[in-house]
Amino acid sequence: MAKKVFGLSLPMLLVGGAAAYILTRKRGRPAPPDGMGDVDGDGRVTEADAKLVAKAVGALSRGQDILTSEQYRRANVTRSGRLSVVDALFIGQYATGERDSF
Ligand SMILES: [Ca+2]
């Protein structure tokens, strides 16, 4: 007989945990008051923001700027003045709760 925790079997807990993780990645977290990380401006910091920053970094390397100045400010979470994959990484980590601030 499978071991149970709070009446749930281990496989049920694993599936539930994975579902919660995927949902968190998709929904992200509310943006901080200064809007940092919320590049698309929907009020939340999500994986979509991280993807948009990664796309912008790629575009910049080809000499194209796809972000507005306000989007650029919100995307540059390292405040280095230059957008990089580290900004995308930090935004992704914030969205999943692996990071609590920028
Ligand atoms: Ca957003």
Outline the structure in words.
The protein is 50% helix and 8% strand. With 102 residues, the protein is mainly α. It has a single domain, classed as Type 1 dockerin domain. Strands 1-2 form a two-stranded antiparallel sheet. A hairpin with a 2-residue loop joins strand 1 (4-5) and strand 2. Helix 2 runs antiparallel to helix 4 (85-95). The mean pLDDT is 91. The protein binds calcium ion (CA). Residues 38, 40, 42, 44-46, 49 line the site of calcium ion.
Kindly report the average pLDDT value: 91
CATH architecture: Orthogonal Bundle
Residues in helices, as a percent range:
40-55%
CATH superfamily caption? Dockerin domain
What series of H and E elements makes up the topology? EEHEEHHH
Taken as a percent bin, the fraction of beta residues is 5-15%
Count of domain modules: 1
N→C terminal distance: 46 Å
Class by alpha and beta content = mainly alpha
**CATH topology-level name:** Type 1 dockerin domain
Number of E-state strands: 4
Attached small molecules:
calcium ion
Q: Using the alpha-carbon principal axes, give the shape.
A: elongated
Produce a short descriptive summary.
The protein is mostly helical and 102 residues long. Helix content is 50%, strand content 8%.
Using brief descriptors, characterize the structure shown.
102 residues, mainly alpha, Type 1 dockerin domain, two-stranded antiparallel sheet, 4 strands, binds calcium ion
